[in-house]
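Example 174, ligand zinc ion.
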Amino acid sequence: MSSPIADPDAATAASAERGATEIEALREMDLMVPVAGITPQQIPDTYWSKRDAGRLHRASDIMAAKGTTVIAPVEGTVLKVGRNTSGGIVVYTTDIERRFVFYHAHLDRVADGLTDGATLRQGEVIGYVGTTGNAQPNAPHLHFQVMRMPADGRYWEGMPVDVRPFLTKTGKAR
Ligand SMILES: [Zn+2]
């Protein structure tokens, strides 16, 4: 007779396997730092920094002069060019297989002609570093967050992942 209670060991193994596959996928992407001229080593570890109301940052802040080129970390598609209170001018993109969501915030402006659904090559210009949203006016930076694409397609609500270890290429606009 089978037990109606799920086997916790099996659940843990499935979850671990998912995690391993995900790490493999991120590694294989050979992600580029999404700001021109910035090396992977220059990105500070701000993923677990505390923010307002006990929230965790769960993103990387890439400091750069205002107007520095922001580029696509990997080949893929633009999900949404938009604006929100905390992020200011933002762009959401995804990889070809739509496994991950890349969120770029505090942009000064978006690249000319960039629209929802546009295809992107790695290193393609998507915008410029700024201080829109809740960024400090004297500290322009790109707030860069990577999330797992949720099964329901609500890309703005994906579970974040610390991408810093997977950024292997220095940012270079094409
Ligand atoms: Zn940030």
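Summary: The domain at 31-169 is CATH 2.70.70.10 (Glucose Permease (Domain IIA)).
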